[in-house]
Amino acid sequence: MNNNNNSISISPDQLLNIGYLMLLVVLVCLNIPTLAIIALIILAIKALNLYCTTWTVNQDSLVEKTGILNVNTEEILLFRVKDIRLYEPLLYRLVGLSRLTIITSDYTKPSIVLYGIKDGEELMHMLRQLVANCRQIEGVKELDIR
Description:
Blueprint: E1 2-4, E2 7-10, H1 18-29, H2 33-51, E3 54-57, E4 61-66, E5 72-77, E6 81-87, H3 90-94, E7 97-104, E8 111-118, H4 120-138
Antiparallel strand pairs: 1-2, 2-3, 3-4, 4-5, 6-7, 7-8
């Protein structure tokens, strides 16, 4: 997490690619060059994809930027956040990572997933506080109609 001027920039950790790296090592050890080259290309694309994914949390919004060649930027206003879910599967916990799923009332992006992040619980509490502050400033109240 990078913190600068009231915004936090978050990126997924490259540890998510450990399986591809292990596959590459096994293929090299087994002396299967064709499959090793394919695994290396897949690993490079996956690593570049993670490198080009960022989430920026501001005082009033969450901005997701994804894509290698075609970049997609999506902004979610924090007062639209309905729920935040923290998921820590065993393999993620072993390396200190987690996944946050943020459910929103936004029509174009009803949910956003921050995967492979460090300090997920701390980020979840910080987001909840920012959402509450943003709702208070905007005068927004949550209303569920079923």
